[in-house]
Amino acid sequence: MGQGTPGGLNRQGFPGDRKQDGSDKKEKKFEPAAPPARVGRKQRKQKGPEAAARLPTVTPHTKCKLRLLKLERVKDYLLMEEEFVANQERLKPQEEKAEEDRSKVDDLRGSPMSVGNLEELIDENHAIVSSSVGPEYYVGILSFVDKDQLEPGCAILMHNKVIYSLGQYFGFEARIFWFGHLGFRIISGSGSGYFRYGLLTFYGQNELVQVLSVVGLLQDEVDPMVSVMKVEKAPLESYADIGGLDAQIQEIKEAVELPLTHPELYEDIGIKPPKGVILYGEPGTGKTLLAKAVANSTSATFLRVVGSELIQKYLGDGPKLVRELFRVADDLSPSIVFIDEIDAVGTKRYDAHSGGEREIQRTMLELLNQLDGFDSRGDVKVILATNRIESLDPALLRPGRIDRKIEFPLPDIKTRRRIFQIHTSRMTLADDVNLEEFVMTKDEFSGADIKAICTEAGLLALRERRMKVTHADFKKAKEKVMFKKKEGVPEGLYM
């Protein structure tokens, strides 16, 4: 009998196939492979009720976002325009009323209006005023005048209305008192009747009376003579157009230009910059030309005035013009005030025998006060120029007012050569021109004389219909200029 094999082993003694119990996993069945993906044209979506109810796909695309922002901006603009139109419609009645009120104020002011000065404020509705000619008046201030800006000394506008009044009842003296007290000016008289002013009634002869009242205020009053002194356009001359004068250019830069551009340098070294300089020397040596170069090189406001312009006809107008000049310079600071021919007002003081001489001395005293008075000048520099420094008053030249005196001598050989090169640089010269002959001459040439020689030589060439200037033209021009110079200047004038 054969014995059975142990469990789990087959007949050869190896583990054999044994039926798995229920806990074992079943064997995997065969599954066919997935069909290949469809390649080619995309199958069309079938239309139907489901496709109609489905919402379109919305993606956050860049173009859509930009379009949305653009439409929102357009909407904001439209809203702004709508608000603007609504505001204009709402403000239109107010503008019409303001225009009507403005016309009423203009009618009250009248035309023309007189210009006067406010001497004293009595109260909110009354003041004492004066005009350029005539006495002072006690007048009323109309309600539409801005009283916060009224201060003694300011320029005001007064209306110029003429009415009929009566004042014979009080007699001539009383009439003058009452009408002067009420701000009236009597012009003429004719007829009879009565006149009422407030609660007062006057009976008697008709008088033509001018009523004065403050109706306005002049803002930023600037004398027209001072406004034309301001150099609006910088001159074309620069330091490169000046032949020689290197020492003079250096001195004026240190005294005028550098304190305005780099004031911290003077603070660091512990000194106060100079207040002004004076340029003196013979005519034609380049004083005014150097002042033009300063105006060209700096961005400061440049005010130029001739000394004779400060001499005015009426009493007190000269000192007033000097005060106005420095006030405008202070308002426009940093600024430079250039006074040419200062010897017109700055001569030495003697016993004056006429009103004109005394007025010139008062103008110079005001100039002395403005140069070194109680108030500081700040960033205002002064340049004076004269041909006769020996005739100026010593008080004008003392340190503290004029700290530097810059002399302009006649040009030497090196300076002459440089000036000839500057003035002949744009001229068409012939080959025979030898400028060294004129540079080395013993005649005393100024810079203006050299310029006149070059100009005269060009005119002589044009007279002969030539486009080039020859050496002979320069010789003739030199003789002509030197002859006029020796003939026109008295001997011993410039010592």
Automatic annotation (TrEMBL):
Stretches assigned to coiled coil: none
InterPro entries according to UniProt: 26S_Proteasome_ATPase, AAA+_ATPase, AAA_lid_3, ATPase_AAA_core, ATPase_AAA_CS, NA-bd_OB-fold, P-loop_NTPase, Prot_ATP_ID_OB_2nd
Protein origin, superkingdom: Eukaryota
First-listed, main subcellular location of the protein, grouped into a coarse class: cytoplasm
Transport is among the record's keywords: no
Alphabetical keyword list: ATP-binding, Cytoplasm, Nucleotide-binding, Nucleus, Proteasome
Protein family: Belongs to the AAA ATPase family.
Protein name: AAA+ ATPase domain-containing protein
Organism: Gossypium harknessii
